[in-house]
Structure formats: structure tokens, C-alpha cells
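Notebook B, p. 112. Complex prediction, attempt 2.
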Amino acid sequence: MSLPPEPRTAPDSGVIHNIGYRGYQGPRLGRSYATRSLFVQSLRGAYGLGRSGKSKVLPMLILGGLGAIALMIVTATLIAKQQKLLMDYTAFLSTFGLLITIFLAAQAPVLMSRDLRHNTVPLYFSRPITRGDYVRAKFAAMTAAMLILMVTPLLVLYIGAVLGKLPFGTNTEHFLYALVAAVLYAVLFAAIALLIAAATPRRGFGVAAIMGVLVVSNILATIAFGINGGFEGRDSANWVALLSPQMLVESVVNRTFGLGGDGAVIHAPSTFAAVVFGVEIVTIAVLCYVSLLRRYRKI
Amino acid sequence: MSTVIKTDGLTKRFPRVTALDQLTVEVQPGVVGLVGSNGAGKSTLIKILLGLSPATSGTGQVLGLDIATEGPAIRERVGYMPEHDCLPPDVSATEFVVHMARMAGLPAAAARERTADTLRHVGLYEERYRPMGGYSTGMKQRVKLAQALVHDPQLVLLDEPTNGLDPVGRDDMLALIRRVHSDFGISVLVTTHLLGELERTCDHLVVIDGGRLLRSSSTASFTEATQLLAVEVTDHPDDQSLDADRAVRERLAAAGLTVRPDGSRILLVEMAGEDTYDTIRDTVAGLGLGLIRLEQRRHRVAEIFTAAAPGAQADPATPADPADPAPGADPQTVDPQTADPQAGGAPDVVAS
């Protein structure tokens, strides 16, 4: 602490002095730090952290729910003394794709629409970060949030399987396949959902539109799959995966890693199809990302 | 630090309109008012100064940094308070300003400390922990100002900071803006279309209209005492037939002063020196009248918009004026062609 005041200022010692304005001489960490901060804030926001208690309910419920389901699968497998998980890792992701989609639809507008709706975006752009940094941070945050959502139950399955003395090699292999699938889901879904969210400043519309696009496309593709005899095992019916983002990822992963031997599980009908599907995944993700950048160029 | 903002022939054209037209202006440290009607190009100018929108032609510097190439560096040193509402309602002021501080590059601990300091300086206390959705307009404006100041910028750009405030709130905000410069040492560029506010707040005014510079000079020279005294006297207590005004006028004229009536019972006397006060006092007393009013008359900033008097605008260069134009370019001289047709109506957009 500083020395006591000089004697001549002593008489009015009872006064609380206003310390006045203090400048800031410390470090300014610049663009990349700001972008990272935005990433962290957005990722936390996707799970309702740093926001009201109410906004934590849905994301935490879905995360907890998926974890609980995974735990139940492991427990059931071990009780039934099976040598194989009752539900494989990749199958887990596609089976509970609806829950993942709900999380995405609910949280993508949280990341994008709120800033647009409340006109906060100009405040970001009056700071060192650029439009590109902003989109990059938001995209990374949404992808990371999706990954956390999907990898957590996968880890529960994997750790449970390993502790339960299930074959280590196969489980590790399939767990890694599922991780690849999770990354593909996360990137593709995040790109689609963020673009829709950025186009709909009203959060409710954003939620509905994302659900609409992802769920309806899935339903349409399933109907087309059935009409074309997919359930009877006709291979060419698998081309309907072109219609649905979720099936795209699913069929590419199943084909590439030779999963889903029975005909009812969707898979790319040929190597050529797998390549086509893969190209479509990349194209959609890139197109959405570029459109997102363009969306923010005008603000 | 000498010049805060400097533009040279800055032009911004959109496909349909020219938002800024050959704007050459220089702004020194202090509180500077940017005046113009809606659509005069104020917001466009701010965007260009922040390096967010490239100019069609011309150059500019903010804090000595080039606006075309050093945008990020400028935005690190400049604060911006937008005109519109920009606060998410479900976040508290503290959280919001901390986040904005980090967006400006402040480390987490410094961001929290600066946020507490800044919110206290703008006058937000306990309410800063509540969600901002429940704030009054005045409180929201304070948060907006706080987020512009939190990273201790060298310059803040305030876009219509008094919008939507009641008279008391407006006075508070204007006092706060004065303090930003006088106590915090931060230069201020404040835009408004309300001239009365700027007279009290700003050291220097830049007037633009239709994207062109109308005038840039110190507030004092806009409102300088016009060497006129307004005089008002009572009627004679006994002699009702005496026309008091006329008698005073004649006496003063006889004393060698120029006098003209100004509306209801007010006489405007031109100052001839310090003893003019004495002459008026003695004259009124000599006639046995009461002196109601004896005051200096000032120009109002509004006159540059209402009276199309190029003559009145041609004399701004006072010695106290801090913004003497760069040699060669003379932004202070008003082009009569610009001033004349627009002084009355101030059209929003310049054709061409």
C-alpha cells in the first residue's frame, strides 16, 4: 500500500475520495484472442452456461438423456452377457439422430439469431475481429457443441464396454468409426443449421425451419426408401440418401467401414455412390459456410 | 497525439446515392459534434472511419492509422456506441460488458475489473447484475456507452447517444459525454441532429449535409457573442404617454450607438466597447425608466440551417479555432453553392 498522506492533507481524513477514472495500460490481445473468446462464449451459450437457468434445461436434458441411454445400453449388454453391444456406436448416433437434431435446432438460433435480433452484431464488428472471424468462431462453437453432445454418450458406451471386458479391438475400432461419423454429422449439421439460423432473426422461426429441413428431409428420404423397395433389400434404394443430410453421413460411414451388413440399414450402394455422397456432404457444408460469410458481409 | 480524425476527399457512392462527397475534414482531440440531418452521411462516415466499409475514393486516418489498411488496429483503439438498441435482454449488464471487453482484446481479469469501473463511471450500480431487458432507456444508453468505453479507447464514436431520452436523461448523458473527455481524457465524436445539445457539449462542430461538408469550426465561433446587447426597459412609472422604447432609442442613437428594435420591446444595441454598458445604464436611468434586461446576444447553431446567410458563415476562423485547415485544402470555407440551396430544407440525398 502507499504511504499515509502528507500532514497537510490530514484534516479531512473522513472523506471518501473518488479515485476517478483509471486508464488501461495492460495488454490488448487482439483478434485471435477475441475470436477464441467468442468461440468459448458461444460454446458455453450452446449449453446455456452463462445464461439464465431456463436456457440450460433443454441442452442439459438432451445431453443427460443421451448419456443415460448409453449407460442403459451398456448395462443391458453386460446383464445379458453379450459379447457385442446391443447397439453399435454408429447405430447409436443414427438411432438417436432426432434428439441430436432437436438440440441443434434449439441451439443454433441461440448462437446466431440472438446477435442478429438484438442488433449486437455491429458491436462485434466495431471491434478487432472481422466478419470471417465471427463466422469461424460461431461455426467452430456449434460444431464443438455437437461433438460434445455426440461423443459423451459414445464415451459412455466405449468405457462401459472396455470395463465390461468386451472385445477391446472391435470396440475401439467401432468407437473410432463413430467418432468419424460424429465429426461428419457435426460439421454438416452445424453448417446447415447456422445458415438457416442466420437467415431467420426470429428465434422461433429458426428452430422450426431447422427442424423442418432436417427432419422433413429425413422423413421424405425414408418414404422414398420404402417406395423404392429399400426395406425389401433392394440396393439401389439407398440412393435416396442424397435427399437427407443425416442419411448421407450414415450411408457413407456404413459403406466406408463395412458396417450394417443387413439390407435394412442404409448404406451407400457402391463405392461410386459413397464418393458421390461424400462429395455432396463436402459441397453442402462448404456452400453453407460461404453463404454464411456472405450473409454477414452486408452488416 | 495531434489529429484524431483526418479525411481527404473521402467519397462513398452506393449504386443509387452518393453518401459522402469529397469530404475533407480534420478533427482535433476534444468533444466534436458531427451534425447533419437524417441521411446526411453521418453513419456512413462512422462506418468508414471504423474501417468496416471501404471508401469509393479518398483517404482517411483515425488516430494516425489508415482507414483502408489498418482497420483492426483502429477498432482496437476506438469505441463505438451505435444509435440503435444493441443489448440482449436476457443478459446482465456486467456479463455483457465483460464479454464486449474481451472482444476488444482485454484479458479476462482485466475485462472484469474494467467493466466494474466503467459501469460505475456511467452511473450503473446495483442494477448491473439484473438482465438488461428490464432496464429503462436511460440505463440502456449508459450500458451502450459503457461497452464503448470499457477497453479505454483513445476515441469514442457516439451515434445519437441522446436518442429516446427525456430532458433530464439527456442532460445527464451530455454531462457524461463531457466527462468522457474532461475526466477520462478520451476524445469524442458525437453525432446528433439536435443542435441545441451540441452547443452545450462540444468544443468543435462538423456540419455535413448530403455527404458534403458545410462547415467545420469551433463551437465558440458558431455561437460567438455577436457584439449585440439586448435591452429591455419598463414604461415610465408616471408619464404614461412617453414611448419609453423610442426615447431610449433616440438617446442611444444620439450617444453614437447603433440601435434596432427586435420584436416585442427588445432593443438590440451594437457594442462599441466596454463603456456601452455604462451608456445604456445611464441613459435608462436618466429617463427614469427601469432596466429589465441587459444581456449579450449569441448566435445559435441552428442559424446555419435556418438563415441562408453565407455572409454569416464566412467569418468563422477565430484564433481559438483548433482546427485550422491543412494548407491547400480549406474545409472551412463554405462553398456558397452548397450552402445556399440546402440551408433551408437540407435534402437528404445529393443527386449525382
